[in-house]
Fold these 3 entries.
Entry 1:
Amino acid sequence: MKSFLSPLLRSNPPPFALTNTRNNKIVAQTLLTAFDSASRRKGLLDHDSLPDQSAMIIAPTSAIHTFAMRFAIDVMFVSRDGRVLKVRRHVKPRRLAAAWRAFAVVELAAGAAERSDTRPGDQLQLTAP
C-alpha cells in the first residue's frame, strides 16, 4: 500500500521538503529517513541536536522513545496518507510517546511544530524545495 512517503523510497530520490497543506508552511526542508529496522532503532540517538528546518521521518512506527537522547524534540504522529494524528511538543529525553493508528513519526527540533503552525488534522505532503 502506498503512503505519502513513497517518493522517498525511490533510489536516489530528489530533495523534498515537508509541507503543511493547510497553511502552505514548510515544516522541514532537510529530511532524514529511518525506513529500515537498523535506522529506526538508531534514529536521532547519535545526534547532539537537530537543526531547525530538519526532520527525521521514521516509518513504519506508531511509537518512539527519547531514552538516550540529549535534547528535546517535537514529535508528529502521521497516518499513511499524511494526516497529522497527534503532536507532542518539547518531548524531553527519557520519555515515551505513541499514537494509535500512526504509520510514521516526524521528529523535529523543539519548537518547530509551533513555528509551522502544524496541528492534528493537518495534511503533510512532500514538495520540491
Entry 2:
Amino acid sequence: MMTVTVHPRMSSNDMSVLLEPPKTHLGIALLSNYVVLPELRRGSVVVPLPDFPVPDLWIKAMVPVDR
C-alpha cells in the first residue's frame, strides 16, 4: 500500500468552480457524482485512476428550523 499526501492549490465550496480545472485539463478534482456525472457522460472529463476508487462518504447536515 502506498500513501500520497496531496497539497491542493485550490479549494471552494462551489462544485462548479472545482469542475473547471478537470474540464480544461489543468488539474484533477474530487467531486460529487451528481456534479461530474454529466461531464463524464459527455467525455469532457475522465476518471484519472479508475483502479483506485474513492471510498463512499456520507455527510449529514443539521440546520436550525429558523434558517
Entry 3:
Amino acid sequence: MKHYGLIGFPLSHSFSKKYFTEKFTKENITDAEYDLYPIEHIKDLQDLLDAHPDLCGLNVTVPHKINVIKYLDWVEHDARNAGAVNCIRIHKESPVLAAFSGEVGVGGHDFRLEGFNTDLYGFEMSLRPLLNGRYYEALILGDGGAAKAVKCVLENLEINYKIVTRSPHADNLLFKDLKPHHVAQRKLIINTTPLGTAPKIDECPPIPYAAITGDHILYDLVYNPEKTLFLQKGEERGAVIKNGYEMLLLQAEKSWEIWTSQEKHP
C-alpha cells in the first residue's frame, strides 16, 4: 500500500484528505491511502518519515510551507523562487546507489525529498482563462505565505503588481492609504488574505470597492464560502469574479501527477 498525506498544524479540516479519498474510490485506486499528519514543528518531519516508511508523497500546509525547504534534498526552480513548498515527493533509492552517486539525502536517509509548489500551477491555470489575452496590472491583497505563489505566477506572466498590507513593509501600499485611483489603475485584484473565510463571512479586505468596474477581475484564494463578501462586492460592480476552488483542484491533481511520476531530478 502506498501512503500519501498532509502535514501542517493544526489540521482540523482538510480539503486534501476528502479530495484524494474520493479520487481513489472513483478511479478504483486500491493501493493508495491519504491521511493527515499534524506536526506542530517541522523538525519532527524526520520522525514522521521514520514512523511511516511507506510514505510516497506529502502535501504541506501552514505553517510549514517555508521552513520545510531546508529539510529537502532538491527543490524545483519555481518553488525555490516562490520561497515555499506545498508538495513533497519521497523518492526511494538504494542506499548503495545513493552512496555511489553522492546523493544521500540531507538527513542521511536512503530516500530523497523533492520539493514542488503546485499552488503555482493551480493559480496560473485557473487565472489564465480570465485574462483572455489582455494585459492587466494587479493588486495583491496581503503578503503572507499564500501570496508567494501568486507573486511568482504574476512575475512569470510579466504582470506588474503592487502589494497591499496592513503593516509597512518594503514598498508595499498600506490598506489605509489605498485610494480609488489605485484600484482604477490595477484591474486585477487578488485576495490572498483569509478575510471572509467561513464562519467570518461578513469580513472583507478594506479597499475602495466603488472604484471597481466591469473591466476588473477579482480573484479570491478563499473558497469557503463559494462567494465571499469581497467577491460579492466585485460582482455588484460588474467585475469578473472567481474563488480559489478550481486552484485547489488543479494543485491537488498536479501533486498526484508529481507523486506518480518516476522521473528523478538531479
